[in-house]
Amino acid sequence: MKEKRGQLIVVGIGPGAMDKMTFEAYRVMEECDVIAGYHVYVDLVRDSFPDKKFVTTTMRRETERCVQALEEAASGQKVAFICSGDAGVYGLAGLIWEVAQDYPDVEIDVIPGVTAALSGAACLGAPLIHDFALISLSDLMTPWEKIEKRLRVAAEGDFSIVLYNPSSHRRKEHLQKACDILLETLPGTRVCGTVRNIGREGEETQIYTLEELRNVHVDMFTTVFIGNSSTKRIGDKMVTPRGYAREKADGILEP
């Protein structure tokens, strides 16, 4: 069998803080020759690995970014291709696998990370204890009509809902539009929350009702949580019970 010439490892670095990434993610970056990725994410780790070569691109140049990283690997380098959160959840792990078909000599691997739905939920309390749906409001690659359908189905299914990419300079009204769709099914009193800059400087959490959330201005660094019919506010936290107390009362669980 022909030996691989280089290695590219797609790494989910979590929300950004070094102490919030996995040991495996840190080890891969420590052992690699090159760290590649979106410049904003690379800047989060640059100071911790000053001896590495860095390969970056700006936003909307995802395919070019993947090609650059694969070219480095094809030259015999060990490359850590980093994504925020988890590389397989709205990250570039899928695109790397597609583009890597043109680089058969490069070994590919993927290291999971903590996606914003999980790290943000921890900041808010426990909003995702039961089933939940994860929906991006970005219509760059998904038609808005399909996003609307997913929002309606998630609301009708009584899922807790996590919204990624709730707003940007071009999509300032998307969160308001999403709330209007959800309000067709859900009560305006439904417990909701937002987390901004998860695991980074300036981290901030807020609790709202769905009606209040409709008028909140957020940015692309904000993750939005909409509770299900059981979600409650406990102090400044957002908690979705799974039914343990009821099961104990019914004698299903041992006291």
Mind telling me the CATH superfamily name of the largest domain? Tetrapyrrole methylase, C-terminal domain
CATH architecture of the largest domain: 2-Layer Sandwich
CATH topology of the largest domain: Methyltransferase, Cobalt-precorrin-4 Transmethylase, Domain 2
Kindly name the structural category: alpha/beta
Strand order of the largest sheet: 3-2-4-1-5
What summary fits the major beta sheet? 5 strands, parallel
- What is the CATH C-level name of the largest domain? Alpha Beta
Strand content: 25-35%
Overall pLDDT metric? 92
H/E order of the elements? EHEHEHEHEHEEHEHEEHEEEH
Share in helix: 25-40%
- Count of structural domains: 2
Low-pLDDT stretches are none
Shape descriptor: elongated
- C-alpha end-to-end distance: 59 Å
Describe the fold and architecture:
By secondary structure, the protein is an alpha/beta fold. It has 2 domains: 109 residues, Tetrapyrrole methylase, N-terminal domain (Cobalt-precorrin-4 Transmethylase, domain 1, 3-Layer(aba) Sandwich), CATH 3.40.1010.10; 123 residues, Tetrapyrrole methylase, C-terminal domain (Methyltransferase, Cobalt-precorrin-4 Transmethylase, Domain 2). The strands form 3 sheets. Strands 3-2-4-1-5 form a 5-stranded parallel beta sheet, with helices on both faces. Strands 7-8-11-9-10 form a 5-stranded mixed beta sheet, with helices on both faces. Strands 6-13-12 form a 3-stranded mixed beta sheet. The chain is elongated. The termini are far apart. The mean pLDDT is 92.
